[in-house]
Amino acid sequence: MDKKTSNVLEFNKSFGLITNNKPSLIDETEFTLRHKLMTEELSEYIEACENEDLIEVCDAIVDLLYVLNGMVVAHGIQHIVEGMYNEVHRSNMSKLENGKPLYRSDGKVMKGSEYFRPNLIKYINE
After folding, report:
1. In sequence order, which residues have a C-beta less than 8 Å from that of residue 125 and are 6 or more positions away?
2. What pTM value is reported for the model?
3. DSSP state of 75
4. Strand locations in the chain, DSSP E?
5. How many helices (H) and strands (E) does the chain have?
6. Quick check: 102 and 95 in contact, CB under 8 A?
7. Considering the domain 3-77, what is its CATH architecture?
8. Three-class SS of residue 109?
C-alpha cells in the first residue's frame, strides 16, 4: 500500500468512515457520496483551469486523488490496487496499432487491433 492510500486509510479510520480489508462492494449511500465528491472536485478543477489558477488546479488534482484513494479504501482494494493499476497500464499500452496510436477526433486514444482487456479478476481472487 502506498503512502497516499495509507494516509486516507488513517483519515477514514479517524473519522469513522468506511474501510474494508478485502475487495468489497459498497452500498448506494456510500457510492453516491463518492460520486458527489468526485463531481465537486472535478468542477473545482475545471473552474481553476478556466481561471488559469495553477494553485487551485493543483489543489483540485490532489483532492481528486484523495477522493479516489478513499474509494480504494472503501472498496478494500488497497492491497491490490497497484497490481491492478499495472495490469490496466499493460492493457492501455496494447491499444497501439503496429506501434502507433489511434486517436478519435477529440484526441481520445482508441483501441487498436492488438488491444486486450485487463485481467483484474486475478487480483480480486488472490
Report:
1. none
2. 0.89
3. T
4. 102-103, 109-110
5. 5, 2
6. yes
7. Orthogonal Bundle (1.10)
8. strand
Residue with cell 473552474: 47
> 54: exposed, middle or buried (C-beta count within 10 Å: 0-12, 13-18, 19+)?
exposed
Residue 106's SS3 state is coil
**Burial of residue 50, with CB atoms counted within 10 A of its CB: 0-12 exposed, 13-18 middle, 19 or more buried:** exposed
The CA-atom distances, in angstroms, between 16 and each of 1, 12, 44, 88, 100 are: 20, 6, 26, 31, 48
pLDDT tens for each residue of 34-43: 999 999 999 9
Q: Count CB neighbours of 114 within 10 A.
A: 12
Local structure of residue 98 (DSSP, 8 states): T
Is residue 19 a contact partner of residue 12, using CB atoms and an 8 Å limit? yes
SS3 65: helix
**Across the chain, what does the average pLDDT equal?**
95
Q: How far apart, in whole angstroms, are the C-alpha atoms of residue 96 and residue 82?
A: 23
The ranges assigned to domains in the chain are 3-77, 82-124
